[in-house]
Amino acid sequence: MKKDTIPIDKNGFSERFFEELAKEYDKADTFANKQKELKHKHTQSTLR
Asked: What number of H helices and E strands is found in the chain?
């Protein structure tokens, strides 16, 4: 049985590593935007 290999670039990182990193970045960016929206809503409600 042949084992599947993951291509690795010259720095020793696999393509999958970068895909996972991009997903985590997207999650963090989405979370940050939600936090900003909540903060904005909170400041608007306290000003009233």
From this structure: 1, 0
